[in-house]
């Protein structure tokens, strides 16, 4: 999972770097050729995009650096945390859900991923298999039974 996230970050950084160093300078150059920069929408748009791309690259680089500092061997092997694949039972609806807890930047609800910063992610953090947790959601309070937890260390085979 960590490798997949790192790869996604590296791919986006690579695309943005190309845009910043190749595409945007071309757009800015063409916009300058149009003349009066004070009222040149293409020029302003290209500069705004350039600033956004620079900030996004910085943000992604920081996230990549943070991910490289994660020591999977020091993560708990018996409690819900980053990267855990969790199966819960919504007791009031008698509905089972399975998802993986991820950092907010990489959330993919359709892919079965939930952010660690979401109410469910925060409510499940530290829970163990067999525990019942009550979580305050926007629609009200819900109780869940944690049916199964497969932690990141377990997934990577470092749960000794």
Number of strands: 5
The figure for the number of domains is: 2
Gross morphology is elongated
Distance between the termini: 19 Å
Question: Please, what is the average pLDDT?
Answer: 87
CATH C-level of the largest domain:
Alpha Beta
Percent in strands: 15-25%
The CATH topology label of the largest domain is Chitinase A, domain 3
Low-confidence stretches: none
Treating each run of at least 4 consecutive H or I residues as one helix, how many helices?
A: 4
- Major beta sheet summary: 5 strands, mixed
Decide which structural class fits the backbone.
Answer: alpha+beta
| Fraction in helix | 40-55%
CATH homologous superfamily placement of the largest domain: Transcription elongation factor, GreA/GreB, C-terminal domain
Structure write-up:
The chain is α+β, with helices and mostly antiparallel strands and 160 residues long. The protein folds into two domains: 2-69, Helix Hairpins; 73-156, Transcription elongation factor, GreA/GreB, C-terminal domain (Chitinase A, domain 3). It is 44% helix and 21% strand. It is built from four helices and five strands; from the N terminus they run ααβββαββα. Strand 1 (85-90) and strand 2 form a beta hairpin. Helix 1 packs antiparallel against helix 2 (41-68).
């Amino acid at each position: 999972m960590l490798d997949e996230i790192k790869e996604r970050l590296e791919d986006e950084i690579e695309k943005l770097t190309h845009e910043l160093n190749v595409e945007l300078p071309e757009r800015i150059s063409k916009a300058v050729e149009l003349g009066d920069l004070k009222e040149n929408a293409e020029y302003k748009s290209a500069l705004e995009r350039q600033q956004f791309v620079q900030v996004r690259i910085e943000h992604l680089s920081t996230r990549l650096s943070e991910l490289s500092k994660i020591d999977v061997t020091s993560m708990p092997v018996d409690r819900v945390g980053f990267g855990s694949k969790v199966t819960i039972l919504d007791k009031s609806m008698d509905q089972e859900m399975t998802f993986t807890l991820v950092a907010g930047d990489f959330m993919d609800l359709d892919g079965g991923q939930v952010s660690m910063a979401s109410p469910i992610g925060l409510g499940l953090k530290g829970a163990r298999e067999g525990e019942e947790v009550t979580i305050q959601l926007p629609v009200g309070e819900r109780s869940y039974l944690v049916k199964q937890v497969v932690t990141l260390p377990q997934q990577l085979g470092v749960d000794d």
